[in-house]
Write a structure and sequence with these properties.
Blueprint (H helix, E strand, L loop, with lengths): L2 H18 L7 E8 L2 E11 L5 E9 L4 E8 L2 H19 L10
């Protein structure tokens, strides 16, 4: 299985899990992966796209700062896969550098 298809499968599975969370007013979210100080999360929005399909966000979170580094509103799994890969790459790169952003000597 290609890496892109594996990523789409992972996102599809997580999306199905989010849809199964009871709609009690709270925002449904789950962690897809953690690398170093970063985490990629998927959040289900309560809004629907023009076809009546629930949309979801991918977020890249920095646990050291507690802030969202980047996010992307996804309409389809195939659109989310390259964003997920980009977030993974960022997380992997950031785990190799010191948290303060300085270069190691």
């Amino acid at each position: 299985m290609s890496e892109g298809k594996h990523t789409e499968l992972l996102i599809s599975k997580a999306y199905a899990e989010l849809l199964a969370i009871p709609k009690d007013g709270s925002q449904a979210s789950l962690s897809l992966v953690s690398i170093g100080r970063c985490e990629v999360r998927m959040l289900l929005t309560r809004g629907l796209d023009s076809n009546g399909v629930p949309q979801f966000w991918l977020e890249l979170i920095d646990h050291d700062t507690g802030k969202c580094i980047d996010s992307f509103l996804c309409h389809q799994v195939k659109d989310a896969a390259p964003v997920f890969e980009e977030f993974l790459s960022y997380a992997a790169d950031s785990s190799k550098s010191p948290p303060d952003g300085s270069k190691e000597q």
